[in-house]
Hints:
about 500 residues, about 0% strand, 2 strands, mainly alpha, elongated, 30 helices
Amino acid sequence: MNFNKSKILLIQSARSGDINRLQALLAEGADVNATSQDDFTALMFAAQRGYTEIVRILLSAGANVNYSRKNTGITALMLAAASNCIDVVQTLIAHGAEVNAKNDDGSTALMAASLKGNIGVLRGLLDAGADVNIKDKDEDTALKLAAQSGNTAVVQVLLDGGADANVTSRGETALAIALRGGDTKIVQALLAHGADANTRARDGKTTLMQAAELGDVVSTKLLLAHGADVNAKDKTGETALLLAADGGYAEVVQAMLEAGVDVNAQTPDGETALMAGAAGGYTEIVTALLDRGADINAKDKEDETALNLAVVEGHADVVEILLNRGANFQARNKLGDTPLLVAALHGHTKIVEALLQKKANLNTKNFGETALNIAAMHGHTETVKVLVNAGADVNSKADDGKTALMKASDRGNTEVMRILLDNGADVNITDSAGATALMWATHRGYVDAVKILIDAGVDVNVTNRGACTALMIAEFNRYPEVVKLLKAAGA
C-alpha cells in the first residue's frame, strides 16, 4: 500500500473510531507514528475522542505516548485530560505518559483538566504524581485556573492534592481571585487549607479590604475568623472599614465593628469611615459607627466633617442624625464655609430647616456672603423662603455691598425677588459701586425683573459712581424693551 495513503487512512480510522480498519492498516505496516498535516498522530486523535481501545492498540503497536506537536507542544495526555477521557488518561499513564509534560505555554495536563473541571482526570493525574504547583508562562497554576473558573470541587481536589494555597500569579493569590468572583465556598476552602488572610494585592489592599469593597459579608466574616487584620491600611491609607462604609455595605461594617475595628482610623487626608458613610447618605452605617464611638466632629485636611459632607450631598436624614448626636454645626472648613452656608449654596431646603432648628447663625458670612445672599443668587426659592421666615436680614450686604435683592436681580431670579420685596427688601439700596438692584437687572436686560422693581417703587433716576443711570445702561446695551419701561416710569 502507498505510504502516504496508509498514513492518511490510519489517521482517519483513529479519528473516526474504526477499529477494524485501523488494525488492518497496522497489520499491513502502516506507520503508527505518522502525523497529519497539522501534526497530529493517530494516538492524539484517538485520545482526544476517548477511543480507549484504539489507544491501547496504537500503544501496543509502538505509538510514541509522549509525542508533542511541533508548534504547540501538546501531547495525547493533554488532549485526553482536556476532553475528560479518564480511561484514556489512565491508559496513557500506564504506558509511560509524562504527567508533567508542558506545552509551549508551559501548561500541563493537570492544568487542562483543572480549567475544564474534570474531577476524575484530576484525581488520576495527581495519583500518578502530577506536580500540582507547576506554573505556566503566565505564572498560572492549576489552582489559580480553578479559582478563576469558580469551580469549588476542582479547587478542593487540588488543595487536597497539595496545592499551595498561597502561591501567587502575577502578584495575585487564588484567594484574591475567589473573592473577586464572589465564590465564598472557594474562599472557605482556601482558608481552611492555610491561605493567608492578610496577603496584599499590588495596590496594598488586603483580602479583607477586597471583600469589604465588594460588600461580601460572608467572606468578610470568614477572613476575620482566620485572622485578617481588621485595621490594616492600603497604600493610600484606607482601611477595610472605610471601604465598606464608602460602598454602603452595612452588614460588612457591622461585622468589622464586632471584630473590634478602630472606628476613628484616618487616611493621610484625614478621611474617616464616618465621613465616608455620611457622604454616601448611609444612615444605618452612620448610626452604627456613632454607636461604636466614632468621632462625630473629626476633620479631614480640608477641615470638612461628616456633617459638612452630608450637607454637600444633600443627605437630610444623615444630617438629622448627626445634629441630634451633637455634631458641631457652626464649625467652618478651610474655605470658611459653615454647614448652613453650604446648604444654602446647594439649595438643600430641608437641611437648612434642620440647621435653623438647631439655632444655626443666620448672619454668619463667608467672603461677605450670608446664607440668604447665596441662596438668592442661585435662585433657590424655597430655601430663600425658609431663611426669610427664620428672620434673615433681607438688606444685609456682602463685602461688595450687594444685597440679596441685587444678587437675585443680577440673575433674573424673579420669584426670589418677589419674596425679598414682600419681606421688606429695600429696593433703593446701592452697592459699593453706587448701583441699585434696578441697574443690575437692566445690565442683564431682564425685562420681568425690571418690571418687578419699578412696581416696587424703585428710583429710576439714581446714578452710580460712574454717573450712569439705569436708562443709560439699557440704551448702551441696546435693550429697547427695558428702555421703554424705564422711560414710562419717569427715567
